[in-house]
Amino acid sequence: MCSVLLKKKILGVLADNVLGNASPDLVASSTIARRLNISLAETRSSLRSMNEVGIIESDPETERALITHRGLCWLHNAA
Question: Residue ranges of the domains in the chain?
Answer without folding.
Answer: 3-69
